[in-house]
Amino acid sequence: ESASNQHVAVIGAGPAGISCAHRLALKGHQVTVFDALPKPGGLNEYGIAAYKTVDDFAQRELDYILSIGGIAIKHEQVLGRDFTLESLKNEYAAVFVGIGLGDVNNAGLNAKAVKNVENAVEFISRLRQTSDKSTLQVGRRIVVVGGGMTAIDAAVQSKLLGAEDVSVVYRRAQDQMNASAYEQELAQTNGVLLRTQLQPKQILSESGEVSAVEFEYTQIQDGALVGTGEIMNIPCDMVLMAIGQSLADQAHQNQLTLTANRIQVDDQQRTSDNKIWAGGDCASNGEDLT
User: Fold this and answer.
1) Strand order across the beta sheet in which 71-74 lies
2) Is 78 exposed, middle or buried (0-12, 13-18, 19+ CB in 10 A)?
3) 239: Cβ–Cβ under 8 A, 6 or more apart, which residues?
4) Cβ atoms of 267 and 202 closer than 8 Å
5) Per-residue pLDDT for 163 more than 70?
6) For 29-84, what is each residue's pLDDT tens digit?
């Protein structure tokens, strides 16, 4: 908009939300950013292994971006709990949604009912926010389900924390893993076992605690990934789930059009609601990288 000093609400203080807030502030608008966590930065602060973002990189970058003024950040403000898209639309000239993809797919494995099964992003977040790493509980035998950067990060960190036996288990071939060749090599040089062509079937437990994950071997048949029927159990005392993420229910409640579980946006990042824009991982053209 050419008229300046409109007040815009931004949801999410991750890379997408902060980039949007910065550009709006440069154009002379006022911005209030709502973020669910106690510190800004999103995945740059909470979701990337510390060995990749040294010297408090995320917070220094934020200080630099926020130094232009005109941007206020409200912490521990959760969409759907402390405010809604509807309430922001009534109060602000426009709304930008940059909430990332916080809800991790459970893959229907009954993961929540079993102890010592954790979302890998939460595991990395806990690790980064703990000053004394020796107090962190980590399993002896860990299975990480997934093939992306989060899976590798969680596996390498587990190994560095003293886990004896760590496997990253991915349903496709190794050359189809989202993790880069560098990261795959990093995992292997840290003693992590990469196991491929195995898809999770169920989490096995004894007395309510995880004891193994049952996998089925996979193969490509007529271009599609299918199970072969052959089963293998991998014993473990901790499971970290890193198998992609799905959008929170807010979009449904606000009648925003979704595409493949992301908010549909046009080439201007506008959603199906003409007062709401979206960007980053939660948007249909999101890059999946911070």
Assistant:
1) 71-74, 30-34, 7-11, 94-97, 276-278
2) middle
3) 111, 114, 116, 117, 118, 142, 143, 144, 145, 203, 210, 213
4) no
5) yes
6) 999 999 887 778 877 777 666 677 677 778 888 888 888 888 999 988 878 778 88
Q: How big is the chain, counted in residues?
A: 290
What is the C-alpha separation between 11 and 94, in angstroms, rounded? 11
167/228 Cα distance (integer angstroms): 21
pTM: 0.59
pLDDT digits (tens, 9 = 90+) for 240-256: 998 865 565 566 666 78
- Residue 241's beta-bridge partner residues? 119, 145
Phi, psi at 48, each rounded to 5°? -110, 135
Query: Could you give the CA distance from residue 65 to residue 98 in angstroms, rounded to a whole number?
Result: 17
**Averaged pLDDT, 77-105:** 82
Distances (CA, A) of 228 to 71, 108, 143, 198: 54, 20, 21, 10
Q: Quick one: tokens of 206?
A: 């004894």
Residues with Cβ < 8 Å from 12, sequence gap 6 or more? 33, 34, 35, 36, 42, 97, 98, 99, 100, 280, 282
**Cα(40)–Cα(75) distance, rounded to whole angstroms?**
8
d(CA 119, CA 123): 6
Per-residue confidence (pLDDT) for residue 2, from 0 to 100:
47
